[in-house]
Amino acid sequence: MNTTTTTRPAPYIAALAVSELFVDHSYQRPLDLPRARRLAESWEPPLIGVIEVSDRGSDQQPRYAIVDGQHRYAAAKLRDPKAVLVANIHTGLTPRDEAHLFYEIDAKRTRLTGWDRWNARRGAGDPTVLAVESVVEDAGLRVEDSPTNGSVRCVSTCEKVLKLGGQPLLRETLSLITEVWGVEVEAFDAPLVHGTALVLWHYGKTINVERLADAMVDVSPRQFKAKAVALREYERGSLPKLAALVIVNTYNRTKGPKLDKPKDFTKRSPQAGVRRPASLAAAS
Questions:
Q1: Where is this region: Disordered (predicted)?
Q2: Is residue 57 very low, low, confident or very high in pLDDT (cuts 50, 70, 90)?
Q3: What are the φ/ψ torsions at residue 48 (nearest 5 degrees)?
Q4: 3 domain-assigned
Q5: What CATH number corresponds to the domain at position 25?
Q6: Predicted structure pTM score
Q7: Could you tell me the residue range of the domain that residue 97 belongs to?
Q8: Which of 209, 219, 242, 281 is most buried by a 10 A CB count?
Q9: CB–CB of 211/200 below 8 Å?
Q10: Is the pLDDT of residue 3 over 80?
Q11: How many domains does the chain have?
């Protein structure tokens, strides 16, 4: 029996104008335009790398089908319609071959984890990362991907809290949690940290933090999370929002003025104001 092995020429590197490139949507994923715009705004040539293309032949214009790199291509076009990209050019491929190559590249690509990105940003001196880690360390905690007491792993959540209310909100959130549960690792679960921050942010000075701490101490972090998950049956929203509602419910069961439940915790209550730290309030 005769067998035939198809040997294709090895790919080669060349610079191609974006006008020579196109995307075959019969196998390519849809373009994420916001992603392309972000890439265009933060464009750094050394980080763009080499795109993978297939030469469809001189009788087709545009000539080169993008196999890998359509968002870099779109970003380059947004920046400059006459831009040039470095490409690894494959020849002798059918559209089916291109689709297979696209799959192989995507499947074998090593994707960065959230921690990989965080560590890289730390190394680059990212001010947001440094701000988060400064607050965490001041609270007597550690930023690390380890399920041990004293470790804060929810760095993405911490970044959201920082964006919402700056270092003061993150500091107050971690201070409250450590006052209630110490350095127990489950206390720093993302939904609970985020939910606590949402409550502190929305109600501001209208909430009695000492009363809140006394209310929360009787419920374990695991119970808070379980109640938030169970609340999905009756309430709509993200897990952090549901955790915030559970915290409010817990607070309202104690003696004293009750809190109204907002539709959006990220919007401050008109009476929120700016609450002074308890130490300053006691000194006045």
A1: 255-284
A2: very high
A3: -75, -35
A4: no
A5: 3.90.1530.10
A6: 0.67
A7: 12-108
A8: 242
A9: no
A10: no
A11: 2
